[in-house]
Design a protein that fits this description.
The protein is of the alpha+beta class and 161 residues long. It folds into 2 domains: 87 residues; 60 residues, no CATH class. 32% of the residues lie in helices and 25% in strands. The protein is built from 4 helices and 9 strands. The chain has a 3-stranded antiparallel sheet, covered by helices on one side. The protein has a two-stranded antiparallel ribbon with strand order 2-3. The N and C termini lie far apart (46 Å).
Length: 161
Amino acid sequence: MLVDFNILPETSKVWIYQASRSFTENELKEITSKLNTFIENWTAHGSDLQSGYEIKYKRFIILGLNQNLNAASGCSIDASVHFIKQLEQDYNVDLLDKMNVSYKQGEFVAFKTLTDFRKMAKQKAVSKNTIVFNNLVTNIAEYKENWEVPAKDSWHNRFLK
């Protein structure tokens, strides 16, 4: 059951998928349509899952699920991963590789492999104040407070000495 992401409870589970590139306006329209269809039909053991999504910076797909009504099952999580894999194929983009880092350079969102981000940290090309995206947040409350933060307040801090 598709609902507005902004009305989901703060305890709702989130999954964040970062794209290896920005989506075009046409791709965003198509992806929005596909997300609407997927979420409208997303179920766990035959029960609707109250969920919504956001697309941020033309690059991040954030799925939210109100687990107070119905929790995701293994099969429903598999279905969502299959859906994301299909988006990867349809748009020739990486969404599932967790070994990549996105960060802000002004208003621009940059994307690097973790190895390249480490090198940049050693070269002082990024700092403790660089805004990074902590895609490890697990619920909407954490997403609102701890997703877009200075590197010093995220797991990225370990690379910044």
